[in-house]
Design brief:
- It is a single chain.
- The protein is an alpha+beta fold.
- It has one domain: Alpha-Beta Plaits (2-Layer Sandwich), CATH 3.30.70.260.
- It is built from 3 helices and 4 strands.
- The radius of gyration is 19 Å and the shape is flat.
């Protein structure tokens, strides 16, 4: 089943969490992170990863989330094997620029 990463703004405080919880009630969420974008913000940024079985569920979820906020950001989560290098190719080696430049801590 495809996974989707969604970001939406919700009201700060307990009411924001309750609104988001109600919107996600019928869906399988595997991650939920609530963060305050700036210290005294009236809204929280909610990042959630949802696993959906079909595209119709995605439409229903987006309708629910748009009732909370006019801005909903969505992207598809890549499967781990998509990050592997193609067969026959070696992965890229990454090294510290400090070490390469001879910088000592």
């Amino acid at each position: 089943m495809p996974k989707w990463r969604i970001r939406v703004l919700v009201p700060a405080g307990r009411s924001g969490y309750q609104v988001l919880e109600a919107a996600l009630a019928g869906f399988q969420a595997s991650e939920l992170i609530l963060a305050r974008p700036v210290p005294d913000a009236d809204e929280l940024t909610a990042d959630v990863v949802i696993e959906l079985s079909d595209d119709d569920e995605l439409g229903s979820l987006l309708r629910e989330l748009h009732s909370i906020s006019p801005q909903v950001f969505i992207s598809r989560v890549r499967q781990p094997d998509q990050h592997a290098p193609p067969s026959g190719q070696r992965p890229i080696r990454v090294r510290s620029l400090r070490a390469a430049a001879g910088v000592v801590r």
